[in-house]
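STRUCTURE:
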Protein backbone atom coordinates (compact mmCIF):
# COMPACT_ATOMS: atom_id res chain seq x y z
CA UNK A 1 0.00 0.00 0.00
CA UNK A 2 1.44 3.35 -1.05
CA UNK A 3 -1.44 5.65 -0.17
CA UNK A 4 -2.79 7.33 2.95
CA UNK A 5 -5.40 5.24 4.76
CA UNK A 6 -7.90 6.38 7.40
CA UNK A 7 -8.61 3.49 9.77
CA UNK A 8 -11.64 3.37 12.06
CA UNK A 9 -11.12 0.55 14.61
CA UNK A 10 -14.26 -1.01 16.08
CA UNK A 11 -15.05 0.40 19.48
CA UNK A 12 -16.97 -1.58 22.09
CA UNK A 13 -18.63 0.73 24.57
CA UNK A 14 -20.62 0.23 27.75
CA UNK A 15 -21.28 2.15 30.96
CA UNK A 16 -17.65 1.63 32.08
CA UNK A 17 -16.09 3.20 29.00
CA UNK A 18 -14.81 1.64 25.79
CA UNK A 19 -12.40 -0.93 24.38
CA UNK A 20 -10.84 -1.19 20.93
CA UNK A 21 -8.03 -3.06 19.25
CA UNK A 22 -5.66 -0.32 18.10
CA UNK A 23 -3.46 -2.74 16.20
CA UNK A 24 -4.48 -6.02 14.61
CA UNK A 25 -2.26 -7.18 11.76
CA UNK A 26 -4.99 -9.33 10.17
CA UNK A 27 -7.48 -6.44 10.14
CA UNK A 28 -4.90 -4.18 8.51
CA UNK A 29 -4.07 -6.83 5.91
CA UNK A 30 -7.77 -7.01 5.02
CA UNK A 31 -7.63 -3.25 4.38
CA UNK A 32 -4.59 -3.68 2.11
CA UNK A 33 -1.97 -2.54 4.61
CA UNK A 34 0.94 -5.02 4.67
CA UNK A 35 3.72 -3.40 6.68
CA UNK A 36 5.90 -4.35 9.63
CA UNK A 37 6.21 -1.91 12.51
CA UNK A 38 9.49 -1.76 14.45
CA UNK A 39 9.14 1.25 16.75
CA UNK A 40 6.43 2.96 18.81
CA UNK A 41 6.53 6.68 19.65
CA UNK A 42 4.49 8.81 22.03
CA UNK A 43 4.48 12.61 22.19
CA UNK A 44 2.69 15.06 24.46
CA UNK A 45 1.97 18.66 23.51
CA UNK A 46 1.09 20.89 26.45
CA UNK A 47 -0.70 23.58 24.45
CA UNK A 48 -3.34 23.74 21.75
CA UNK A 49 -1.83 25.22 18.59
CA UNK A 50 1.39 23.21 18.80
CA UNK A 51 2.39 22.35 15.25
CA UNK A 52 4.76 19.47 14.55
CA UNK A 53 5.87 18.96 10.97
CA UNK A 54 5.95 18.52 8.12
CA UNK A 55 8.44 15.68 8.72
CA UNK A 56 9.75 12.63 6.87
CA UNK A 57 12.68 10.25 6.94
CA UNK A 58 14.58 9.88 3.65
CA UNK A 59 15.47 6.60 1.96
CA UNK A 60 16.85 4.13 2.72
CA UNK A 61 15.25 4.76 6.13
CA UNK A 62 11.82 6.00 5.04
CA UNK A 63 9.12 5.53 7.64
CA UNK A 64 5.50 4.62 7.29
CA UNK A 65 3.50 5.70 10.35
CA UNK A 66 0.27 4.50 11.95
CA UNK A 67 -0.91 7.46 14.04
CA UNK A 68 -3.62 7.79 16.68
CA UNK A 69 -4.66 10.12 19.47
CA UNK A 70 -4.24 8.90 23.05
CA UNK A 71 -5.70 12.02 24.69
CA UNK A 72 -7.09 15.29 23.36
CA UNK A 73 -7.39 16.09 19.66
CA UNK A 74 -5.27 17.05 16.68
CA UNK A 75 -5.54 17.72 12.97
CA UNK A 76 -3.27 15.24 11.19
CA UNK A 77 -1.88 15.88 7.69
CA UNK A 78 -0.10 13.78 5.07
CA UNK A 79 1.45 15.39 1.98
CA UNK A 80 2.51 13.40 -1.08
CA UNK A 81 6.17 14.25 -1.81
CA UNK A 82 6.86 11.44 -4.29
CA UNK A 83 8.33 12.61 -7.61
CA UNK A 84 6.28 11.13 -10.43
CA UNK A 85 3.11 10.86 -8.37
CA UNK A 86 -0.01 12.41 -9.93
CA UNK A 87 -0.75 13.66 -6.40
CA UNK A 88 2.64 15.28 -5.74
CA UNK A 89 2.19 18.23 -3.38
CA UNK A 90 -1.41 17.35 -2.52
CA UNK A 91 -2.43 16.88 1.08
CA UNK A 92 -5.04 15.03 3.10
CA UNK A 93 -6.07 16.05 6.61
CA UNK A 94 -8.13 14.33 9.28
CA UNK A 95 -9.19 15.18 12.81
CA UNK A 96 -7.97 12.44 15.14
CA UNK A 97 -9.31 12.49 18.68
CA UNK A 98 -9.34 10.25 21.71
CA UNK A 99 -13.14 10.26 21.31
CA UNK A 100 -13.37 9.11 17.67
CA UNK A 101 -10.49 6.59 17.94
CA UNK A 102 -9.57 7.00 14.26
CA UNK A 103 -6.05 6.27 13.05
CA UNK A 104 -4.13 7.44 10.01
CA UNK A 105 -1.58 5.43 8.08
CA UNK A 106 0.96 7.72 6.41
CA UNK A 107 3.14 5.71 3.99
CA UNK A 108 6.76 6.21 3.00
CA UNK A 109 7.01 9.08 0.52
CA UNK A 110 4.65 11.37 2.41
CA UNK A 111 5.52 14.22 4.75
CA UNK A 112 3.58 14.17 8.01
CA UNK A 113 2.48 16.98 10.30
CA UNK A 114 -0.11 17.81 12.90
CA UNK A 115 -1.48 20.66 14.96
CA UNK A 116 -2.96 20.11 18.40
CA UNK A 117 -6.54 21.29 18.96
CA UNK A 118 -6.64 20.79 22.73
CA UNK A 119 -4.16 21.19 25.59
CA UNK A 120 -2.27 18.10 26.77
CA UNK A 121 -2.77 16.19 23.53
CA UNK A 122 -0.99 12.85 23.22
CA UNK A 123 0.03 11.41 19.85
CA UNK A 124 0.89 7.71 19.67
CA UNK A 125 2.31 6.16 16.52
CA UNK A 126 4.00 3.09 15.13
CA UNK A 127 6.84 3.34 12.58
CA UNK A 128 8.02 0.93 9.88
CA UNK A 129 11.70 1.86 10.34
CA UNK A 130 13.86 3.04 13.21
CA UNK A 131 14.58 6.72 13.77
CA UNK A 132 17.81 7.71 12.01
CA UNK A 133 18.88 11.33 12.76
CA UNK A 134 20.86 11.65 9.52
CA UNK A 135 17.79 10.74 7.46
CA UNK A 136 15.27 13.12 8.97
CA UNK A 137 13.90 15.96 6.89
CA UNK A 138 11.20 18.57 6.98
CA UNK A 139 9.32 21.00 4.77
CA UNK A 140 7.88 24.32 5.91
CA UNK A 141 4.43 23.72 7.38
CA UNK A 142 2.68 26.36 5.26
CA UNK A 143 4.11 25.41 1.84
CA UNK A 144 1.19 23.36 0.54
CA UNK A 145 -1.89 25.51 1.12
CA UNK A 146 -3.01 23.23 3.94
CA UNK A 147 -6.23 24.40 5.57
CA UNK A 148 -4.91 24.16 9.14
CA UNK A 149 -7.72 24.67 11.69
CA UNK A 150 -5.75 27.24 13.66
CA UNK A 151 -7.35 30.08 15.58
CA UNK A 152 -4.32 31.46 17.40
CA UNK A 153 -0.54 31.82 17.37
CA UNK A 154 1.26 28.58 16.55
CA UNK A 155 3.91 26.97 18.70
CA UNK A 156 6.73 25.62 16.49
CA UNK A 157 10.17 24.14 17.09
CA UNK A 158 13.20 26.02 15.73
CA UNK A 159 13.68 23.20 13.22
CA UNK A 160 10.13 23.54 11.89
CA UNK A 161 10.38 27.34 11.66
CA UNK A 162 13.56 27.03 9.55
CA UNK A 163 12.44 24.16 7.30
CA UNK A 164 12.73 24.76 3.53
CA UNK A 165 9.64 25.76 1.61
CA UNK A 166 8.27 23.52 -1.11
CA UNK A 167 9.88 25.59 -3.89
CA UNK A 168 13.28 25.11 -2.18
CA UNK A 169 12.79 21.41 -1.54
CA UNK A 170 14.16 18.51 -3.57
CA UNK A 171 12.31 15.35 -2.60
CA UNK A 172 14.37 12.19 -2.07
CA UNK A 173 11.32 10.02 -2.96
CA UNK A 174 10.57 8.72 -6.46
CA UNK A 175 7.29 6.92 -7.05
CA UNK A 176 7.89 3.24 -7.77
CA UNK A 177 11.62 3.35 -6.95
CA UNK A 178 12.13 3.97 -3.24
CA UNK A 179 8.59 4.27 -1.89
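SEQUENCE:
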Amino acid sequence: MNEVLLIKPKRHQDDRGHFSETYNRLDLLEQGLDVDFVQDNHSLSYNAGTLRGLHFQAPPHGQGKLIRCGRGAFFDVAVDIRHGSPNFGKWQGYKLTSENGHQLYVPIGFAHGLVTLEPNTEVIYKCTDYYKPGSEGSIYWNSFGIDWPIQKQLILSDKDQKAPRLNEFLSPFVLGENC
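REMARK: The mean pLDDT is 95.
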